[in-house]
Amino acid sequence: MKSCIKLISILGLIGLTAVELWADKPKSERKIDIPIPVGHDAKGLRLPMRNEQGKLQFILDVQHMVHVDQANVQMHNSIIQTYDDQTGAPSAKIELINSVMNTDTNIITTQDPVVITRDDFRLTGDSAVFNTKTRQGKVVKNVRLIIYNRDELKKKDTEQVSANEQK
Q1: What range does the domain containing 63 cover?
Q2: Is 154 part of a structural domain of the chain?
Q3: E-strand spans in the chain?
Q4: Which of 81, 71, 74 is nearest to 132 (CA)?
Q5: Tens of pLDDT along 77-104?
Q6: DSSP 5
Q7: How many CA atoms lie within 13 A of 116 on its CB side?
Q8: Among 18, 50, 52, 94, fewest CB within 10 Å belongs to which?
Q9: Bridge pairing between strands 144-147 and 121-125
Q10: How far is it, in rounded angstroms, from Cα 108 to Cα 82?
């Protein structure tokens, strides 16, 4: 009888420990959920994406979207408006003509011209890859970058150099 009680209590402790370890595991990356069945399309779709804290990360506005298969969605004439994590203010705007988004990896690719704008620059190129999780991307072929506030950048650089020299 005593050994049976010991066995049950040991199994209970092991079970509780396993539950705690399982609960402490980091959550897997969120997958973008497209509310369109596979093989169907939608027009005028707006998808806001938020992080785990509920802060708005980006809004995806698509004129025409087709859910090709379980993982891929074709988008035509889409705009991605990203938002700053700390301030919540609009950050960069990405304009795509034709693109494909993989909802498993959250990566958007395009072989058509792309335009990325922010208050201080405009970046254009013939094709691009954009990771919506990390908000990093790559623009390739005929890349053109226009920086609007170049004088402010020079001021910041000289301020940083003088601050580093003082240290």
Answers
A1: 41-149
A2: no
A3: 41-50, 56-67, 72-83, 90-102, 107-110, 114-118, 121-125, 127-131, 136-140, 144-147
A4: 81
A5: 999 898 888 888 888 899 999 999 888 8
A6: H
A7: 21
A8: 52
A9: antiparallel
A10: 14
| pLDDT above 70: residue 16 | no
Strands 114-118 and 136-140: unpaired
Burial pattern 12-21, b for ≥16 Cβ within 10 A else e, equals eeeeeeeeee
Is the model's pLDDT at 50 over the cut of 90?
no
CA distance 110 to 128: 5
Q: Can you tell me whether residue 129 is helix, strand or coil?
A: strand
pLDDT tier at 53 (50, 70, 90 boundaries)? confident
In 25-132, alpha helices (H): none
Q: What is the pLDDT, as a whole number, of residue 26? A: 40
Q: What is the CATH number of the domain that holds 103?
A: 2.60.450.10
Determine, yes or no, domain membership for 1.
no
